[in-house]
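subagent[fold] <- orchestrator: predict structure for attached chain, return tokens only, no commentary.
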Amino acid sequence: MLWNKEEKYIEVPYMKEAELEEAVNEVKDALFGPSRIYLDDKKKIGQKGSTNNLPDGYLIDLTNKQDPKIFVVENDLASHQHLKHIAVQILEFSLSFETSKVKVKNIIKEMLQKRPAEWKKCEAFAKKYGYENVDYLLESIIHKKDSFNALLIIDELGEELETVLISRFKFPVEVTTLKRFKSASGKLLYEFEPFLNEVTEDTEKVDISDIDTIVIPAREDGFKEVFIDQNCWYAIRLNSSMIPKIKYIAAYQVAPISAITHIAEVKSIEQWKDSNKYILHFTEPAESIKKIPLGASKGKAPQSPRYSSRDRILKAKSIDNVF
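subagent[fold] -> orchestrator:
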């Protein structure tokens, strides 16, 4: 329940996927932010006589000037679908996408042409970052290596489903939950975390295209026994679409040290045991660097993994310069 002095809001489960799709359209600007475009036309992709699928939509992500992306979107209700069904659906999307890239590009182009504001946004991005036109921008995104990304929007995410998505696929699968609440007077509230919100928070000072380092908070015992002695760090949550960008890991030692003190090159990132978390193995033992203490803003102390760049960290005088 959500509550204030005027009204209380009770969760109202979605009865049909169409209701979830309506909710996504209702909140899309706040959910995805100004640098992403959500397109919800439904058209089949895939080759004739082979795997054919009907995605619920596409998300064009223009937040990274050097690496714009397209996510194939699937909206699902946890109560209506088995974990296996969701996993199979996403796998089939990837196969259809890979075998019909020209068709996918044309479908997305047609969707944009019906939306003048969204077309102009893509046009402005293309002009600013050296693409000849929108057609070439879309072609560059879709035809590059490892171009398939999936986004699952669901009403409830269990740990088991998250673990399945991590263990089954080599391509990025992002998941976001969207819940609906209703008051006695009929007003609606939606509960969600903005898409890749933790990344967005860290790109106020660091351009997302420059991100190559994850900063983790570490207590004294874990820092010495794992980060230093085992040359790794485990049981860490990561955004799957950010994994290819992570080249380094930096350790922020919590109070009483309260500073970033070490950095290591990342050799590999793997699923941690049978869980929805990851383990990062280092190429070699972590390097001690000049301590980067908390600055004027004590609230900048990392409470969970944060994104930055190695160059920014090494040049920083305080945490205020890192994030």
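orchestrator: received. Logging for downstream: Residues 83-99 form the longest helix (17 residues). The mean pLDDT is 92.
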